[in-house]
Amino acid sequence: MSSVAVLVPVLNRPHRIAPLLESIEAATPEPHRVIFGCSDQPTVDELDRCGAWYVRDDGGAEGTWAKRINRLYREVNEPYILTGADDLAFRPGWFQAALQTMGTLPEGSGVVGINDLHNPAGVHFFIARSYVENVGGVLDEPPGVVCCDVYPHSYTDDEIRATAQFHGRYAYSRESVIEHMHAGAGKAPHDEVYAMGLASMGPGLAIFQSRAHLWQGRA
Where in the chain are the domains? Predict the structure, then answer.
């Protein structure tokens, strides 16, 4: 049976750890592992309390979502990963639906956008390890990297999607539902982490536009 590693960068939200783990367990009877990337001590303490697996960094420039995703990917060996976050609520059947959509891609390998009931483009992805290792998630780097890590936060997902589309390896799964409990959707209180994300929109867009020549006209 296929298995998945759920990669979860988390910052200053220890209260989200237990509900997230409970949500994943309830909705994912298939073989799976969850690994967190973190830096702040309250989150580390809660991860220890929950017995969760995590990789700690020093925060700052090393604590971006993209850098943590790439680092966590190197810690796991499952044939599929999910690029996650702490503000997600998993719905039953998400894994099988994502796997079915993956099967429609060339060689059954690529990137599947998840229906988060908020952003119609999808900002979290079910990704085949074979895609990362054989095709590559970043157009100007060798295979083996999930995502471009020069973004402060925002637009990392846009490049993941654009790169997979460039390779003809992207599909969106409406039936694979992992609800994004985002403040922008009125599903969570606005906090400092969401503020940081908003502040990264301008710099992220500038980086995305500067790199668009890599996939423009082909995506």
Answer: 4-214
